């Protein structure tokens, strides 16, 4: 906020946020939306949908990932089940 030198009332534009032609943007759906479906749970797993974009190359990647909760619990401090 203001203590860190930011004006939280100022509207930021693209050039305020990114000052390079080589940036990445990634987004993952949490709940269903117009751009991406949300997380879907099944049995002992979950499926997520993400987009990763790179400005320099114009590449857009669509990623569908399947997560095994039993394996995640072996090294994550988050309790999934």
Would you kindly provide a brief summary of this structure?
By secondary structure, this protein is mainly beta. The protein has helices spanning 14-17, 69-72; strands spanning 24-28, 40-42, 45-54, 60-68. The chain has a single domain, classed as Fructose-1,6-Bisphosphatase, Chain A, domain 1 (2-Layer Sandwich).
Walk me through what this model shows.
The protein has 81 residues and is mainly β. The protein has a single domain, classed as Fructose-1,6-Bisphosphatase, subunit A, domain 1 (Fructose-1,6-Bisphosphatase, Chain A, domain 1). The protein contains 2 helices and 4 strands, in the order H-E-E-E-E-H. Strands 1, 2, 3 and 4 form a 4-stranded antiparallel beta sheet that branches. Strand 3 and strand 4 (60-68) form a beta hairpin. The chain starts with 13 loop residues before the first helix and ends in a 9-residue tail after the last helix.
């Amino acid at each position: 906020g203001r203590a860190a030198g930011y004006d939280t009332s100022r509207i930021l534009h693209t050039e305020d946020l990114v000052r390079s032609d080589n940036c990445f943007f990634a987004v993952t759906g949490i709940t269903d939306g117009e751009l991406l479906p949300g997380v879907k749970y099944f049995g002992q797993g979950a499926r997520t949908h993400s987009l990763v974009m790179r400005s320099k190359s114009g590449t857009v990647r669509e990623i569908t990932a399947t997560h095994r909760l039993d394996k995640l619990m072996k090294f994550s401090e988050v309790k999934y089940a």
